[in-house]
## 1
Amino acid sequence: MTTERERIPLPVTGGLLDANGGTREALLEDASADLSDGIAYRGGAVERAMFALPFVTSMTMISFVLFWGARVSPFLTVLFVCGYVSYGWVKGLHSGFSALAFGIPFLHAYKAADWHKLGNDATQRAPVRDRFFGGVGRAYKETGPALVGDAEHTWRSGIDGEMKRGLTAKFNDIVHICVIPTYKEPLGTLRKTVGTLAAQTCAKERLIVVLATESRDSEAPGKVAELIDEFGSGLLGLRYTKHVLAPGEAVGKSSNCAWSVRCVKREYVEKRGLAPEQIMLTVCDADTYFDPQFMDCLAYNHVQNPKPYNATYQASETFFPNIWNVPIIIRIKAVIDSVGFLGQLASPFSHPFPFAIYSQSLRTSMECGGWDVDIIPEDWHHYLKCWFKKDGDFRVVPIFMVMGNDAIEERNWNEAIKARYIQAKRHAWGAIDLSYIVMNYLEKSDRVSFWRTTKLYMHAAEHHISWTLFWFTCMLGGLCSTWANPVLETYPFGIGLRMMTVIVFIPMSFACWFIVICEFYIRLFIIHDREHFECNTAPMWWQLMSQCQWFLMPLADMMFGSFAGLEAQFHMAIKPSMKYEVSAKVAKKKALIVEDASVPDSPSMYDRGTNGSANTAFNGKL
């Protein structure tokens, strides 16, 4: 039931919000019955065995390098260690070079473009870039090819009742709905995020913000009321949903998103009559800082996409906004991840996955069954669900605009490092989706290509298994395995495995230089004028001296990569369930800190009457 506290009136702004006249309550509490709550994991011996496979694979490779490999074959051991180290610096060089050579020019082009103007003039050249060095769609060049299947991608607008054909008509008919899952987030954090949305170039005409709250958060309605008072008049709409955790659901972003999107469909499609094709959904974290042109850029990319309903759109995410407020070991990982994301989006040879902030058409969400409710790492999982629902014809389309998320910041270094480790475990829990890939392929082997599925699996395994093993292989295997295997002291070539590992590791320094140059360039020339990006507050002498942080890269990789990943895989193997806790978060440098808040255990995927879930995995911020 809706309490009086939750009956927040919306300001009368005219247009779509007031289609039924008068003011409307901010709470969306009716959910569409068409989008049922999906369950990803169903149990069974094969699925349970697949949960254990990442841990078994990791331990087999670690034990091979440290103990029994040299006893079987010193040659194979040296070959494996040196090959694995070489693989690491090749991937590092690839990401760093792609970010520097392709990503940064794309960021410049996207920032300089006037996307609203481009959306209203199809004859202009646009800086739209795909991951294959060229433009996409007819809007790229005046003499370019016609948009494939344009007749299939028209819709009848729910606003004016007219059929929308062509770039300009579609562009101006798109309604953006941004869903922000939140649980006990500081008001200051939400204010900054909603503020960057209210600053969008299309905010008042075409942007609705939906705060997806949890019923356990009694303070949420009050925060929503304050945000409506402050930003309501600058947006097409500011609404909120209240998710009640149901049996079988996992506490977290995915179950909250599932409910919120169902409420959005009920309100704006079934009640207001909008076409699903004209609604673009964007899902983001509570501490997301948008480029002012992001929504217009997203609409432009979407309406000229030859396959607009077979795509998820991903911006270039960074952790630069508070980069100088976090411990150095967290900073180095934030820098590597930020530049690495850009490199993956820009490279034609990588397979990018969505991360935290992503967008897709509401029609796509409806066709794919919405978000599953027993999931923690919802971004990758939802992409995989869409991939199989579309029989493998689904991809990530890059939006080369910089998004900002805060790096983990706490009261002191110890708490910050602990919180970052918890977050790393939560990210590593995504390895459970390797079983999801296998199980879905077994169900759809007649419709999905074996080779495409294998490629998808290998890319996912590369993230969740290969990088987990890199520190163990390089540091322990290359430098320490000689203690357990004296034969490797001089094998090969009389110099030993330890020296061979050091020699092979040298090219990694070039990858580090690529990353350093990219980081400085993005901070100084791309996001220097962005609101809430305090990434250039440190004096230049300190920014230069702090590059000694790269000596801590092995330690950061050990803590937030190898150890966190291995612990996640271990829990996955023995019992894929754990209590979910929300960690403290700093809203501003001198702002209030929200204390840890425990939440109930989520039901298990095997026995709906017991506690725990395959993905209510780890302590971490929602």
## 2
Amino acid sequence: MKGTGLFPRTELLKIKAQPKRLIAAAFTAHQKRRFPPPLHKVQPSRRSSTNLISLGGDFYAAFVARTADTYEKKAMYGFLLRGDKEAELTCLLRLDWHPSHKGMHCIVNCEQERDLSGRNLAGCKELALKDSPVSGLDPDIEDHRKEFIRIFCDVCNISAGEAGLLS
């Protein structure tokens, strides 16, 4: 039934409209348990990530890039989270990029009780992304990670902070 899940569409639209600002984002080698639940199980192998980034209020973002021997196995993920970082956060939106399938796609926590931090996402609500300039992105290249973050900010209505952050 529409509007009866974890976050009805109207609630997600209100969340999207709330002010959020990303001041800085830097990738370093991922460390196990860098993030609070539900992202605490992200494994460090071949991954770099940002710290949990405060966007203001109770909003947070986190980014993970996976490198691989072949281009098709590389990936990037962005998470929009809400809640208490000392307890557990709720994943509102997940932006994924996989060159092997689907390209860039966005999964939202809309009208379903789903854990967006895992791999079992069949049947989740997906947003269509218009004209995303993602061909040829490579998580190993810093400028490409910045471009992924810029797209994430556009999708989530997040203002970029300092001049030159994502340019």
## 3
Amino acid sequence: MAIPSPKTLKYQIPFYQHNYAASSSFIVSIPNKPFRCRISLSTLRSVAAKHVDVATLGNLCIDIVLNVPQLPPPSLHQRKAFMDNLASSPPHKKYWEAGGNCNMAIAAARLGLGCVSIGHVGNEIYGRFLSEVLRDEGISLVGMTNDADVLNSSSASHETLLCWVLVDPLQRHGFCSRADFSKEPAFHWMSELTREVKTSIKNSKVLCCNGYGFDELSPGLLHSAVEYAVEVGTSIFFDPGPRGKSLSTGTPEEQKAFNQFLAMSDVLLLTSDEAESLTGISDPIPAGQALLKRGIRTKWVIIKMGPRGSILITASSIACAPAFKVNVIDTVGCGDSFVAAIAYGFIHNMPMVNTLAIANAVGAATAMGCGAGRNVARLAKVVDILRSSNLNEDDEFWTDILQKNVGAHEITCLSNVVNGNRNNINHVPYDKIASQLLPRLEFPRIVENVPT
């Protein structure tokens, strides 16, 4: 049977109004973007069939948190000697914690999302520890190789990645891992996505990646993962993190993969400093808008403003939400937890300001604990923070930053102080948002407390 010719379809036209053969495909044109792609009906069906909420890709590691008299020296050679000395006698298990993308996965699972962690863990005590932690949190682990020699290897290049989190007497943090001392990614021997990895990406609504993934996986492999996620209709979240600036000026392969993430991700998440480093624009809203315009599939750009709060930027609107006032103990893992809650709002199609509110609450709940991994936000603490309605409001700061961007965009700001429209900014009362968020979170909280 002859394959029907592709039909050009503007994205505004709903797909379901047409009745084409199973072999049909469409060419989707995106207005004002130099991009066209062919989408098959099988791809559209796969979007509807996804039964996993979130998959994380790479950046699975164990944080070993130690108090040290002083942080590692700046010299690379001296840092390597410092780390080798630490590794010569493995510390007690009480200092181990799941780290990297595990933070995001654990926070997401505690919000009730179904999660899969895709990555490499070795066949040693650290790998078994990490596998057990994820399993106990209800998170599936999908390895990235089927090579029996690798799976049974004791080679250092196949071992679980360790990140030494070092804390000095002034509570300053230093980080080092073996990835810091190699020009190649830690798992550079991985060359292609396995069938199991592809299945996990295809079955997931969201694929979460971050800049630290480049420390482990080759740019070519990451490029393949993005291409495949787009092909099967999986939304991509990308948080460049501190690696963003160096990746943007890295090797040609790194730049290609990094620019593909910026162009093809549905959601970009950055701090205001990271956004400035990539755009040269200090004002977070224009910086976010520049990233949005640079993207092809980008729907949301989210700027994390630390203790100030967060901003969500789309092509037609801006939403902002002040952070919550809490007793901050440790900020490690706050950004990862924040991403998990953004994924929650995105998957559940929540209003933007609601999504920011829950993300700020989850980040704040994590900051009240010590360390990341199993210490990230628990649902009960998130609910308590949302109930407190204790926003860190700075009306002058938000008015200043938003007033400069009043124009063609609809602007919404969460507030306890101001209600209604003022200076062309729609202030949404916090009580209204809390009344919408709390009911959907409190039922899982009851389930969480049922004895097993």
